[in-house]
Write a structure and sequence with these properties.
hydrolase activity, alpha/beta, DNA polymerase, domain 1, 2 domains, B-phosphoglucomutase_hydrolase, hydrolase, Rossmann fold, Beta-phosphoglucomutase family hydrolase, 199 residues, two-stranded antiparallel ribbon, HAD-SF_hydro_IA, 7 strands
Amino acid sequence: MYDHYEALIFDMDGTLVDSGQLHEFAWSTMLNKYGIPIDRSFMRSLAGVPTKGTIEILLEKFNLKVDASLDEMNDFKEQVVHENMHKYVKPTALLEVAQKYHGVKPMAIGTGAYTQEAETILKICGLEKYLSAVVGADQVKNPKPAPDTFLRCAELLGVDPKQCVVFEDSKLGLQAAASAGMAGIDVLLVHAVENDYFL
């Protein structure tokens, strides 16, 4: 199905890894701690936006001043993720695609998560062996929907961006792929991946 591309790039959360419940739990815990309302459909629309960016958007949306820094709130959420990831994460149906092209085409992860967190989650899921590169939000100046994350993946894989296909579950991620000049596959439609994040 993807034989005519030279490289495959996957988003992680909600795409190659089923982590919706992990992040919903972590966000809910953090938002409750700092008194920020939980708007479920709005949270789902922000899938793929890095943590600090999401917090800034939420504070602006609800016109809130919180007695904590962005770093403190970010670190608290990351701590909850780290302490609970082993309970929630597992590979999605896209594991079959990764297995099919393992050793045939180079593959990478381009994620809004931080690199270290992504590498840990991929290891828990047994997915790290399929991937030649992992690019987290901490490796690029402009995260998704900017194209930087996926362009960095292509650079590390040594493949022309136009020869890459990106698997994504969010509109922002698909926008980033298009901006990078890459083909984008909506995994919710094409691969029936179910993302149970703030449904």
